[in-house]
Design a protein that fits this description.
The protein folds into two domains: about 100 residues, Hemagglutinin Ectodomain, Chain B; about 55 residues, Head domain of nucleotide exchange factor GrpE (Nucleotide Exchange Factor Grpe, Chain A, domain 2), CATH 2.30.22. The chain contains two helices and six strands; from the N terminus they run ααββββββ. The protein has a three-stranded antiparallel sheet with strand order 1-4-5. The protein has a three-stranded mixed sheet with strand order 2-6-3, with no helix packed on it. The longest helix has about 70 residues. The N and C termini lie far apart (about 135 Å).
């Protein structure tokens, strides 16, 4: 005779259930710790972002203040030149205007402003050709500067506006 044993679903022992409950509690605790750390990190980053924005605004303000302080003597010189003009003293007026020009050039140079070179061959990165004229100069050579250009470091603030040689005029070749 065969013993017929009825199979019943195995019940988990209570120990295993307690172990799972403890594991779930541990996982929940870790999750909460990670979430708290993430929220703290998010708040720290937001504070950092705001601090960087404040610092950048302060740097801009300080840079503007420094430039303006350097331009104040130029303003003073210009006022003196205008006073001389009202008295019709041409020599003093010219001297005053030159003084203003030198003061302004010096103040801008201290900030890193440099005039764009216009001697030689046309450079499309720093110059703008407004006109090409026939001339004895080689083709592509700058023959006249209509407006000076300026750079601040490597960045072109305003390109030099120039007239470029188109080469020897047609019909004048070989007539020498």
């Amino acid at each position: 005779m065969t013993d017929h044993v009825e199979e019943q679903p195995l019940e988990r022992p209570k120990v295993e259930e307690r172990h799972e409950a403890a594991g779930l509690e541990q996982t929940t605790r870790e999750r909460d710790e990670y979430l708290d750390a993430l929220r703290r990190l998010q708040a720290e980053f937001e504070n950092y972002r705001k601090r960087v924005q404040r610092d950048q605004a302060e740097y801009v303000r300080l840079a503007s203040e420094r430039v303006l302080k350097q331009l104040l003597p130029v303003l003073d010189d210009l006022e003196r030149a205008l006073e001389a003009a009202s008295e019709h003293e041409e020599a003093k007026l010219e001297e005053g205007v030159r003084l203003v020009y030198r003061s302004l050039v010096d103040a801008l140079a201290k900030e890193g402003l440099v005039e764009v070179e216009t001697d030689g061959t046309f450079d499309p990165h720093t110059q703008e050709a407004l006109l090409a004229q026939p001339s004895a100069a080689d083709e592509g050579t700058v023959i006249q500067v209509l407006q000076k250009g300026y750079k601040l470091g490597d960045r072109v603030l305003r390109p030099a506006r120039v007239v470029v040689s188109a080469g020897v005029p047609a019909g004048s070749e070989g007539n020498g």
